[in-house]
Amino acid sequence: METIKAVFFKPDPAAQMRKCNSLIRSNTRKLDRDISQLRALDAKTKQYIVAASKRAHRNPSQAAQAAKDNRTFARELIRIRKQSARLTTSKAQLESVRMQVNEAFAVRKIEGGLRQSAGIMKDVNSLIRLPELSGTMHQLSMELVKAGIIEEMIDSTLPEDQMLEGEEEEADAEVDKVLQEILQGRLEKVEALKPETKLEEPALEEEFEDQEETLAQMRGRLEALKS
Question: Which Pfam families does this one have (predicted)?
């Protein structure tokens, strides 16, 4: 029935607006879920850094390894925070698209015609490059083209490695800053928590013997949020 209507009648502006808003809400929920997962990873990584510091205080012979582990965790934390910032910016862009789309349809209702928006075109083109939203943003762009709000999308993809160029290896200064942020003022507390006996040592060793696996899982989660 909808196909037959599309042949003989122009698209219903109200229906077009509802569909566009539905796609925008879907993308917003996706971003909210991803940002929430990144916040959980951020908190967990902080715990690993503090725990490694505790381990070094409990067993000075492991100080060098703990320092190495902490720098590795700090680099992962920097990557997590950059990804979170990227998604937060994208959410703001998506909200801008929503307001501009609704404004465009409101103008159409008043003036009887749509004016193409370069602002929406720019934001949609930026969001469509984001791996997390690529699929549904393509759908949204198609609906906006049908509605006459934007022109046909061109050059809408950008290789992910180009987007993330230079972000894989974090500068030592940035790593130092993160470690200072997390451990500053806590070293005394860590020392105060140092056990008087060695009863906890076996459990402590067991806790950290699978750190490589932990890092692999963290990286896997971060990569999954990008795919």
Answer: Snf7 (PF03357)
How far apart are the C-alpha atoms of 120 and 94, rounded to whole Å?
Answer: 9
Q: pTM score > 0.85 for this model?
A: no
- C-beta separation of 152 from 36 below 8 A: no
Mean per-residue pLDDT, 157-184: 67
Determine the Cα–Cα distance for residues 160 and 188; give it in Å rounded to an integer.
43
CB 52 within 8 A of CB 68: no
Better pLDDT: 138 or 186: 138
Q: At what angle do helices 211-226 and 13-58 cross, to 10 degrees?
A: 170
| 203 or 76, which is more confident | 76
Token pair for residue 189? 């507390």
More confident residue, 104 or 155: 104
CA separation for the pair 55, 16 (Å, rounded): 59
